[in-house]
What we know:
Elements: H1 3-28, H2 31-48, H3 57-75, H4 98-111, H5 115-126, H6 131-138, H7 142-162, H8 171-181
Helix pairs in contact: 1-2, 1-3, 2-3, 4-7, 5-7, 6-7
Amino acid sequence: MGRRDESEFLAFAAACREQLRRTAYLMCGDWDRASDLTQEALIRVYVAWPRLERHDGLLAYARKAVVSAAVDHGRRRSSREVVGLVDQVHPLVDDPSDGVLDRMVLMDALAELPPRQRACVVLRYYEDLGVEAVADVLGCHVGTVKSQTARGLEALRVAYARLGGELAVPDRVTAETTEATS
């Protein structure tokens, strides 16, 4: 890699490192492991740097490298530990930290998803990628993304409720339930 290419890579890595780390965190649920996954992904990008398209393809390739690193790590037998659960104590008064607790419960529920389902949910709803883009990142068919996302969302709902999270119910459903029981 030439001097000019190396400086371009360093600028790219500095610009996207935190975004990649946040995606890695959502994939694994641990900031330290997310840093490791980001580093591994940037190494993969560095190796492929001379042959990568410089415009739209860089971030997509880096994101794919993060997801691949997380899925690869999730497949290893030693990485099957579940991130620690949140204390289930709910105070009687409204507490501003409730949002933090909800987020922790959500992260615990997300950590329980299998790696491919987690990848689909994270890429679709955090990275806000379309189905086709997720299929491209994961190297699979659009139908696979749709089914893995649907299964992942359902498993996420179940795990979230089991871990003590309260699912928001739309007002329309609440009104219909009230009318039906009256």
